[in-house]
Design goal:
With 237 residues, this protein is an alpha+beta fold. The strands form two sheets. It has a four-stranded mixed sheet, with helices on both faces. Strand 6 and strand 7 form a beta hairpin.
């Protein structure tokens, strides 16, 4: 996970061979002993992800650390972006956050991640969000998927349920885990991307949810990142 930095409006493209998606739609499932995620946007961008059962315990541990770490900066980022879009509707606010996130220097963070393991799945915390750096064989294309940490909090029950199903499938599988991973991705890629649109909360419901999460954040102990999880990203230019 990366060192946090002060938020700012400077715009830089993401590089390093990764396409970048700010995730606003997530489908969760299980297939051939893998936890499957279809992470993308309602406008069409999509990353198909399959995570084998054997890596799920360490994945969930890392995800919980990343979620708590990201939230240390998340609320100041939300305040910063929303101050620039006063009276925005929920859809307008989401688009403003996407534009702001894509303008941040994710390429510098990615460049600081050791790339000696092509199959690494690091979760990066940066500007109050979680970046999931993906590469084959867990997906079909090198991708940086950027998540709001509250997404993972809200969807944790579904993630845990399908992880349990994936582990049960893995115990009963008749194929090698590598082949099962390929089959899971093949299944995901064969289906059209048409995410269901959940019922939209009212403005009052959305405000109440955010207030409840902020209150819970204020009441918990600050997250202290382990020194070995800091990336050397250098000073801002």
């Amino acid at each position: 996970m990366s060192k946090p930095r002060k938020t700012g409006p400077r715009s830089r493209p993401v590089s390093g061979g990764h396409r970048t998606i700010v995730v606003d739609a997530l489908e969760i499932g299980s297939s051939h002993g893998n936890l499957t995620l279809r992470a993308g946007r309602f406008t069409g961008q999509l990353a198909n992800i399959a995570l084998p059962a054997e890596i799920l315990p360490s994945f969930f541990t890392s995800l919980e650390h990343a979620r708590q770490d990201a939230e240390e900066e998340y609320w100041s980022v939300v305040q910063h972006v929303m101050a620039r879009t006063p009276n925005a509707s929920p859809d307008e606010a989401a688009r403003a956050m996407e534009r702001w996130l894509l303008a941040q220097n994710w390429s510098k963070v990615l460049a600081a991640v050791p790339d000696d393991a092509a199959h690494a799945l690091p979760l990066l915390t940066y500007v109050g969000h979680i970046g999931f750096r993906l590469a084959p064989p867990y997906t079909t294309q090198r991708t940086l998927a950027i998540f709001d940490p509250l997404q993972f909090h809200r969807l944790e029950p579904a993630l845990r349920l399908h992880a349990s199903l994936a582990q049960r499938q893995a115990r009963e599988a008749l194929v090698h885990p590598r082949d099962a991973l390929a089959l899971a991705l093949q299944d995901l890629c064969s289906r059209p991307w048409s995410p269901s649109t959940p019922p939209k909360p009212t403005v009052q419901e959305a405000q109440q949810y955010m207030q409840n999460r902020y209150t819970a954040f204020q009441r918990r102990s600050p997250y202290v990142r382990a020194k070995e999880n800091n990336l050397s990203v250098g000073p801002e230019s």
